[in-house]
Each structure stands twice: as structure tokens, then as C-alpha cells.
Amino acid sequence: MDGGSTDATKTILKKNKFRIIDSPIKKNAEAQRAIGLKHAKNNLIVSLDADNYLPHKKWITQMVRPFLENKDIVHAGTLHFT
Q1: Which of 5, 9, 39, 43 is nearest to 21 (CA)?
Q2: What is the mean pLDDT of each run of 10 residues along the chain (82 residues)?
Q3: E strand or H helix at 31, and its extent?
Q4: By C-alpha distance, which of 52, 75, 51 is closest to 63?
């Protein structure tokens, strides 16, 4: 979901072959997330916000692995420190 980013976000996503959905709703992350969920085509959805920090390159792989190994898992989150 892109809500009107003005930085290199779209360029980075296109370079890595991500599908970009331009949102008509600007500056409302939850509404944009709902639109993104409606457009989702896969069994797993990973949601990252602009202020997320990925601690290492394998982070997404580690977050997804439990879902692939145990079909009873339906949701996971990370710890958040401020």
C-alpha cells in the first residue's frame, strides 16, 4: 500500500518486484491496511509500517516459518520498544 509516499519507497519496491497498490486514502495507516488486505492474494500477509526496523536480513523468514510449520497459528506480532 502506498498512501502518497514522496521518498524512494516505490522505486525500492518495484526493484524488488513487490506489487504496489496506490491508496486513495492518505495518512490513515489502518484504512490503508484494510484496503491492502482486500487485495491480498496469498495465504500469508506480512505488514510493515514505515517506522518498522528489521533487525536482520532473515527477520521476515523467521516470522513466517512458524506459520508454514504449524497450520494452527493464525497471528503473530513482534515486541515493540519505545
Answers
A1: 39
A2: 82 87 80 88 81 83 90 79 61
A3: helix 29-39
A4: 75
